[in-house]
């Protein structure tokens, strides 16, 4: 059950990860414990997102803004022309992220070898994973807008 | 008037446990289970510990061991005293109204 630790935010893991692993070694792994850990993960992410900032904006505010845009789109309060424009932008960003992720992965393969390139230990691998994440977010946004 | 609690019941139990002596995570869990018959899950325990540490009510003691002991800070002691007094007010009023005191 050590892998549960990886569901927690990185900063939280650095601070409490080892201690939690020690406690887990001495705890019975029941359904109740797993459920409790999942609630702990949600709680830790809630605190993390409330405190994390991007260019001076809190992550929770950014997420609230994205949710608001999605609500406006779903409730058709944004005109069709704007939706089509946003849809195209989302698709371009998604495709660009995907392309860059593949390029970075290939460069990393040449640099560190095929198998190590798939671990997230190197900086390039981390960038590639980040770009894949960006691809996923923008592609989902594109699908929402397309519907 | 009873002030609204900033922290949940597990946090209070952790503070009471640390009021006796410094303890590491699992020892806190054991102490709470022994005294109140409440089994805190590891997720709840470390969620509460991280909040209390952030608030400055508890602090970790440096240790070579993987099990790091926590201690109650001075601020934590003041906060816990206030909370216990609030709870005492509620219980004494309850006892009085039930005719038990």
Keywords:
heterodimer; A: 147 residues; mainly alpha; 2 domains; two-stranded antiparallel ribbon; 6 helices; flat; B: 101 residues; Arc Repressor Mutant, subunit A; elongated
Description of the molecule:
The complex is a heterodimer of chains A (147) and B (101). Chain A has 147 residues and is an all-alpha fold. Chain A has two domains: 2-51, no CATH class; 78-146, no CATH class. Chain A has six helices and two strands. Chain A has helices at 10-25, 31-51, 59-74, 80-112, 114-117, 123-146; strands spanning 53-54, 57-58. A two-stranded antiparallel ribbon of chain A has the order 1-2. The longest helix of chain A has 33 residues, at 80-112. Chain A is flat. Chain B has 101 residues and is mainly alpha-helical. Chain B has one domain: Arc Repressor Mutant, subunit A, CATH 1.10.10. Chain B is built from four helices and two strands, in the order αααββα. In chain B, helix 1 (9-20) crosses helix 2 and helix 1 packs across helix 4 (74-97). The longest helix of chain B is centred in the last third of the chain and has 24 residues, at 74-97. The model of chain B has no long low-confidence stretch (mean pLDDT 90). Chain A binds chain B through residues 12, 15-16, 18-24, 26-27, 32-33, 35-41, 43-44, 47, and chain B through 24-26, 29, 41-47, 49-51, 66-68.
Give the distance, in angstroms, between the N- and C-terminal Cα atoms of chain B. 21 Å
What shape does the CA trace of chain A take?
flat
The total domain count of chain A is 2
Biggest sheet strand line-up of chain A: 1-2
Roughly how much helix do the residues of chain B carry, as a percent range?
55-70%
Helical/strand content category of chain A:
mainly alpha
Low-confidence stretches of chain B: none
Tally of contiguous helical segments of chain A: 6
The CATH architecture of chain B can be named as Orthogonal Bundle
Return the CATH topology of chain B: Arc Repressor Mutant, subunit A
- Helix-strand sequence of chain A: HHEEHHHH
- Specify the biggest β-sheet of chain A: 2 strands, antiparallel
- The H-level CATH homologous superfamily of chain B, spelled out, is Winged helix-like DNA-binding domain superfamily/Winged helix DNA-binding domain
Largest sheet of chain B: 2 strands, antiparallel
């Amino acid at each position: 059950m050590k892998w549960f630790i990886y569901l927690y935010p990185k900063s939280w893991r650095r601070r409490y990860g080892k201690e939690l692993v020690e406690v887990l070694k001495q705890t019975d792994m029941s359904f109740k414990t797993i459920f409790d850990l999942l609630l702990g993960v949600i709680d830790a992410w809630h605190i993390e997102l409330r405190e994390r900032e991007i260019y001076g904006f809190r992550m929770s505010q950014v997420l609230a803004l994205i949710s608001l845009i999605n609500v406006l789109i779903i409730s058709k309060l944004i005109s069709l022309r704007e939706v089509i424009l946003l849809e195209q932008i989302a698709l371009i960003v998604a495709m660009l992220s995907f392309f860059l992720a593949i390029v970075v992965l290939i460069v990393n393969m040449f640099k560190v070898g095929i198998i190590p390139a798939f671990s997230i230990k190197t900086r390039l691998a981390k960038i590639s994973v980040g770009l894949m994440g960006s691809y996923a977010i923008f592609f989902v946004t594109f699908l929402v807008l397309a519907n | 008037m009873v002030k609204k609690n900033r922290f949940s019941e597990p946090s209070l139990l952790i503070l009471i446990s640390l009021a006796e002596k410094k303890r590491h995570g699992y020892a806190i869990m054991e102490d709470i289970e022994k005294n109140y018959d409440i089994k805190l899950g590891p997720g709840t325990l470390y969620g509460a510990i991280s909040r209390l540490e952030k608030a400055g009510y508890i602090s970790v003691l440096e240790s070579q061991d993987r099990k790091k002991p926590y201690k109650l800070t001075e601020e934590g002691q003041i906060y816990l005293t206030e909370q216990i007094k609030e709870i005492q007010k509620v219980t004494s009023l309850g006892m009085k109204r039930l005719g038990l005191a």
